[in-house]
Write a structure and sequence with these properties.
Distance between the termini: 55 Å
Strand content: 15-25%
Oligomer: single chain
Strand order of the largest sheet: 5-4-8-7-6
Radius of gyration: 21 Å
Order of helices and strands: EEEHEEHHEEEHHHHH
Structural class: alpha+beta
Number of helices: 8
Shape: globular
Largest sheet: 5 strands, antiparallel
Length: about 230
């Protein structure tokens, strides 16, 4: 798929060619090269004078509910401030883990949400999760149930990978996004498991992920076959 000859990097699929003379390249050129050749989004976090990691650069083609430029310079805690329980349960532990990361070590995790309005991956203003007007104050959030179109509803999963660069200690946060139609999940026999996962979210996290908007309709539909079987006995 890729090849390097001398100082030229070639994408064998698109035919595009790029320079790899790093000392002569601007940061924006290298970020654009990433975006044009690799599906994952990349976020680069570098420690400040106090050792706190802050977002210093990014290449993001498939953001979800985040305007990446508005997060530049923010710390990990500041970026995750809207997430219920992050500060109280995870903040200090994540900070310590990042400071202790060794080059060559990779850490992975998964995140998921329900996307109820289409199959677009580029959603910087999406409402899969809490928006800054309604859902960040999860204790008092007012939400309205909406009718959702099952045909347009998807499970959105993000595979997150963290690693550390050897010279600068920069942390690279890599995100690969996947969309799976809800109908496919149910057809494969996993509807009940997904409904249970939706129901099991803590209350504030459920509000943040907009469960009050889609929860009753979606979970009821995912369990329809079970209800019909019970009625048929």
């Amino acid at each position: 798929m890729f090849s390097i000859k001398g100082v030229i990097f070639t994408n064998q699929v698109t035919g595009n060619r790029y320079s790899v003379q790093i000392p002569l390249l601007e940061d924006t050129y290298m970020l654009a090269t990433l975006a044009e050749n690799v599906e994952e989004d990349f976020y680069f976090m570098y420690p400040d004078g106090d050792g706190e990691y802050r977002l210093q650069a990014f290449s993001s083609c498939f953001p979800q509910g985040i305007l990446s430029p508005s997060k530049m310079g923010l710390s990990i805690r500041e970026i995750h401030q809207p997430v219920p329980g992050y500060e109280s349960r995870l903040g200090s532990g994540v900070d310590k883990y990042l400071r202790r990361m060794k080059p060559g070590v990779f850490m992975g995790r998964l995140n998921w949400s329900i996307q109820s309005d289409g199959d677009e991956l580029f959603r910087p203003l999406a409402k899969n999760t809490g928006d800054p007007i309604t859902f960040h104050d999860t204790a008092n959030a007012m939400v309205t149930k909406e009718f959702i179109d099952i045909d347009k509803t998807h499970l959105r999963c993000e595979h997150h990978t963290l690693t550390c660069l050897p010279k600068t200690k920069t942390i690279i946060f890599c995100v690969r996004s996947y969309l799976t139609p809800i109908k496919q999940i149910k057809d494969e026999g996993n509807g009940h498991a997904l409904a249970d996962a939706c129901d099991s979210m803590p209350e504030k996290l459920g509000v943040y992920k907009r469960r009050p908007v889609w929860g009753d309709q979606l979970c009821g539909w995912l369990r329809e076959d079970d209800v019909e079987k019970e009625m048929g006995r």
